[in-house]
Amino acid sequence: MAPSEPVEAKRKFFTVEGANKALPLVRAIVGDVVRQFQVVEELRQRLRAVTAGRRKAVDDVYSEELAQSQAEMEAEEAKLVGYIGELTELGVELKGPDGLCDFPSLIGGREVFLCWRLGEPSIQHWHEIDAGVAGRQPLSTAGLPGHIAHTGP
Q1: Which of 114, 67, 113, 118 is nearest to 96 (CA)?
Q2: Is 108 left (phi over 0), alpha (psi -120 to 50) or beta?
Q3: CB neighbours (10 Å) of residue 94?
Q4: How far is residue 63 CA from its own chain's centroid?
Q5: I want to staple 137 with a disulfide (CB 3.0 to 4.6 A). Which of 66, 129, 141, 148 is the partner?
Q6: Model-level pTM greater than 0.85?
Q7: What does each C-alpha distance from 23 to 47, 62, 94 come to in angstroms?
């Protein structure tokens, strides 16, 4: 078996143009992710409410129903993990259940994130790797937005 490539070697970097080209697919997947987060959270809350006041009994009539609900939640969680995996394969990093995403990029030779949130029409923001969403800035502050390196999609 051939040795696997280091994770760093597989990292994709997006230009603003490349990230915007990927947005139709990313938007669809992120829409699925946001809806799936809601489904999973509702199931978790229902299961917590049912199990919180429940006393364990040997002949608990609800045991089968609880087991089915637990299995349903696990299946829905697996769907969510699958959607997030699709984004990861594209090189996009999901940052939260509200549809916030980062696209790795290079500006002036340093790594940054192009930042997008579900509902925004296009890539309009960026931030330093360690700044997070609180450090979001308009692309116009990136210095040379037309010269963001292209080494990926």
Answers
A1: 118
A2: left
A3: 20
A4: 34
A5: 141
A6: no
A7: 35, 45, 13
Paired sense of beta strands 110-117 and 125-128, if any: antiparallel
In whole angstroms, what is the distance from residue 102 CA to residue 133 CA?
9
> Over its length of 153 residues, how does the chain's per-residue pLDDT go in tens digits?
444 444 445 688 999 999 999 999 999 999 999 999 999 999 999 888 777 766 655 446 667 778 888 899 999 999 999 999 999 999 999 999 999 999 999 988 889 999 999 999 999 999 999 998 889 999 988 764 444 443 444
For residue 56, give both structure tokens: 């364990």
DSSP 12: -
CA–CA dist 43, 78 (Å, integer): 13
